[in-house]
Amino acid sequence: MLNIVLFGPPGAGKGTQSQKLIEKYNLTHLSTGDMLRSEIAHQTELGIKAKTLMDAGLLVPDEVVIGMIDNQLVANKDAAGFIFDGFPRTVAQAQALDELLSGHLTSIHLMLALTVTEEELVKRLLIRGQSSGRADDQDEDKIRVRVTEYNTKTAQVASYYAEQGKYKAIEGIGEIESIFNELCAEIEAVK
Ligand code: AMP
Known about the structure:
alpha/beta; 9 helices
């Protein structure tokens, strides 16, 4: 099995690179943001509660996203591996993920972190907001709240994996294809 955490702030290119990686390595894509947006679209109780926080650019509670990941690991028992996109976003989530994966007799092999400056992120997200329809991409203040959530709660997750020797940073600015090639080179090194 090959399990990868694709890490980075909102707008770093995680979604784009995930799509390319799942195709190349036959991995199952687990994006908590996509799962939450699907809950909202289906107007579930969970979705209705999460929407207020998401629209404000704030993180939803750990137990909500951990529960969704738990369900997906069970539902995809035969997967060749997973790409975790937008998860874990807190150290508590990272610890819970380790426990869940060990229950499935596997673990995280690599965290690939896309690094992008804040100004570039804001620029990209405002452009994405013109077509994504995402409320959290529409306004600069909300985008900055998301970047602050990332800096205060999520950035520490990188240290969690660095301590385990699993962290690799890749510059997320440049051609999509050349960033993809760098990500693949890191994956080949652990395969
Ligand atoms: P994303 O699509 O990954 O940018 O996520 C969009 C929003 O969903 C985030 O701003 C959070 O409000 C929420 N969200 C997604 N994943 C998580 C997570 N792992 N922990 C907490 N909140 C999350």
